[in-house]
Give the backbone structure.
Amino acid sequence: MPLLRSVAIRQRTTRSTLAVLSSPSWQSRSSSSSSTLNHLPESRLNPSPDDYASPNFADKADLTIYAGRGGNGCVSFLREAFLPDGPPNGGDGGAGGNIYIQAAHGETSLHKLARRRFIRAGRGKHGQGSAKGGARGEDVIITVPVGTIVRELEREDPAADEAMNIKAYMALQKQRRKEELLLEEEKRKRAEDLGELENEEILDRKGRPKLAPEEEEEDVEVDDPTRQKWLLYPGMSKSEMKSTSFPRLPRRHPFLQQPPAPIYLDLSRPTPRPILLAAGGIGGLGNPHFTSREHPKPIFATKGEEAVSMKVTLELKLLADVGLVGLPNAGKSTLLRALTNSRTRVGSWAFTTLQPNIGTVVLDKYSGQPTARSHKKPSVESDEASDAALEHRTRFTVADIPGLIEGAHLDRGLGIAFLRHVERAGVLAFVIDLAAGDAVTALNALWREVGLYAQMRDEEERDREAESRVDWDFASDPSRGPINLMNAEYSGSSVFEGASTPPGLHIAGKPWFVVATKADLPSTQANFSELKAYLDKITDGHAAHPSGVEGAWTKKCAAIPVSAIHGQGVDRIVHWTVGLLDE
Ligand SMILES: Nc1nc2c(ncn2[C@@H]2O[C@H](COP(=O)(O)OP(=O)(O)OP(=O)(O)O)[C@@H](O)[C@H]2O)c(=O)[nH]1
Ligand SMILES: [Mg+2]
């Protein structure tokens, strides 16, 4: 045993000496793998490709949500010594859990929801004997990032269907009774016309008019849907069940009204309170509710209501103030690093960035004193909170998205999936690599993709609106429409107002500027001067807006030369952006 131990110790020492011996080579290997891809010294702005933070991210999630169904009422009677036939004491069923949605600042991604796919609220517990009511089902609150859009795709509402069935059944019964009465009257008239002899044949023994045989056959019994809602004392036979007469179903009102279909929510601000998506089913009533003279000992209770289930799709549009748009490898991520504290990935190949990144530019250095002053006067329409934010702008956010390539609007590359994040940005910054060919051509190519994407979105939005309009007509109920509980902007009405706005203007109308990056590289001067001349022409109105959209923003098209990798010229971007944001 001691021998074994000594061998083990020796092995360990040899391994550790090996480690010591090999440490220089290991270090050199690690330094080579973590070195940058260019000759420049490694820094925060020129990091090695593996020096980055990559949070989990998803900007879409399809969910199926199930509200909880109500618990059943209970049929029970008090049983005590010397009290063989006690009064009914069945408890009521608990209500099912509701599903709410809430937008909160802490959330940044939908990846957790995308993985969950199904969300169920708790079901209400059944009532019990001794007048014990069932517990309520547990509610669920879905927390999403600010900037999420919720769209309902499909809904199943068994309670509403049941109510419809009952209504239809009632109408049918009424109609049938009316017809019967008419028939009776007719027969009586006929009987009066004929002599008393035939009279005996037509009227049956009770004096009611006899029905013709074929009429009796036609009379098909339709099952009473209200019977489905009752729950009978356990252990009763089917025939007993059929023969039991039930009282009228009591009218129940849910505590929370199910919002009408289709739900459409634009959660562009944090919601102070959760918003209801699916209301849980109502709990059933216990048998004491049905005690009456005819039913002194009711052997029935009502079942809990089935609850709504629906398919919803969540889409996150990041709410950044500035969107960086550029070809792959243009230097967007480096620029984001230079502007903010972001640790997004940087690499010298196309499609380094695979997911949108958001960074925050802190203007006040956390002192509460903005360095770049906002000159915005408070506007009347916007509410106080946003005014306050504008008055003391201490920070703004920048979104870096994967590079766009030609044909991105046709879903080539990665860009299209992420262009929607730029859609909401207040300002667009086109990042153009001065060392990668003609800057004007690059700018035009980028604008073309963005413009085509914008037009496509407009068409999509219009189609969607048309579809929902058809639905409303069908329902012939003007109050039904996409609800927007937040009073947040409903893009269907505010942005896309039919033929009055040219397609694509909601993006082309945004203020924009060009960041001409990699200006530190040799022979980029001429390229920059050409770009600047082109932008001046656009501002003066001698050249058309590169997107080709009429009425697009051409107020002050600027080009700012920077070297993001050295952090030079970046301050100008900050000042220029604040100026545009406060326009
Ligand atoms: N010389 C120089 N190189 C730069 C500058 N900015 C970025 N680069 C380099 O350009 C390469 C691409 O930079 P990224 O920031 O990853 O480019 P990107 O636009 O985010 O690329 P994708 O994410 O693939 O679209 C990297 O090797 C950077 O070091 C700059 O100002 N000067
Ligand atoms: Mg990138």
Residues 56-157+249-316 form a domain with the Spo0b-associated Gtp-binding Protein; Chain: A, fold (CATH 2.70.210.12). The first helix runs from residue 2 to 33. Residues 1-33, 211-220, 376-391, 469-499 have pLDDT under 50 and may be disordered. The two ends are 83 Å apart (CA to CA).
